[in-house]
Amino acid sequence: MSDLKLSKRLSTAASYVRSGAFVADIGTDHAYLPIYLVSNGIARLALASDINEGPILKAKENILKYDLTDKIYTEIANGLDKIEKYNPTDIVICGMGGELIAKILDSSSYIKSKNIRLILQPMTSIYELREYLSNGFSTIAENIVREDNKLYQVMCVEYDGKKHQYSRPELELGKLNIKNKGEEFISLLNLAIDKKIKRLNGLKVGGYDTSEVEAEILELEKLKNDV
């Protein structure tokens, strides 16, 4: 068992990896996640992948340090390029923008399989990512994590080939997050309302139509009242 400690974001992502998985960590952070998963007996094998050589060199150092060179592979790759040959079962993409994650997923046919699990933690454009995922991917689990006084959303999805319908708040905050509520959800909801109020005030100053933003605020306020 490894003494390696993961950040809250990575720890939450790790919790969605299936037992016995071959996990691929795309945009690996020094291979911390693969090392943790393999050394703790959660994943049987892992791939640490990154588009840049620097992180891969550091990943190799850490993999060697934990004596896991026979169980963790490394690959310099753009997104999911070169990943299919490893046949991973669980794919983790953390710390990238939501639109970039969607672009990476859209360029791969390999992930459109009911046997593949995707674990995603977008830094931005969460609405756009969920909108993309609604065309063919089912949300298995999701959570809100507070780290360094910032809130992050982590989601776990699997391909089912179906079109899923979500409301605007569900795309923004997560259908399961709304259902599960909790302290961090309230914080995320308040943050979303505050951002829209600032946008509303800006539109008013500029003399623009505010009806759409006002409707969005009402939707979120209704969620707040239901908590």
Description:
It contains 9 helices and 7 strands; from the N terminus they run H-E-H-E-H-E-E-H-E-H-E-E-H-H-H-H. It has 2 domains: 169 residues, Rossmann fold, CATH 3.40.50.150; 43 residues. The protein has a 7-stranded mixed β-sheet with strand order 3-2-1-4-5-7-6, sandwiched between helices. Helix content is 43%, strand content 26%. The chain is an alpha/beta fold and 227 residues long. It is elongated.
Summarize this structure briefly.
By secondary structure, the protein is α/β, with parallel strands linked by helices. The chain is built from 9 helices and 7 strands, in the order H-E-H-E-H-E-E-H-E-H-E-E-H-H-H-H. The longest helix is centred in the C-terminal third of the chain and has 24 residues, at about 185-205.
Give the key terms.
227 residues; alpha/beta; Rossmann fold; 2 domains; 7-stranded mixed sheet; 7 strands; elongated
How much of the residues is beta strand, in percent? 25-35%
Ends distance: 40 Å
SS-based structural class? alpha/beta
| Overall pLDDT confidence | 95
Which series of helices and strands comes N to C?
HEHEHEEHEHEEHHHH
Largest sheet: 7 strands, mixed
Any guess at the CATH architecture of the largest domain? 3-Layer(aba) Sandwich
**Main sheet: which strands, in order across?**
3-2-1-4-5-7-6
| Computed Rg | 19 Å
In CATH terms, the superfamily of the largest domain is: Vaccinia Virus protein VP39
The tally of beta strands, per DSSP, is 7
Overall shape: elongated
The count of helical stretches stands at: 9
Low-pLDDT stretches:
none
Percent range of helical residues: 40-55%
What is the CATH topology of the largest domain? Answer: Rossmann fold
CATH class descriptor of the largest domain: Alpha Beta
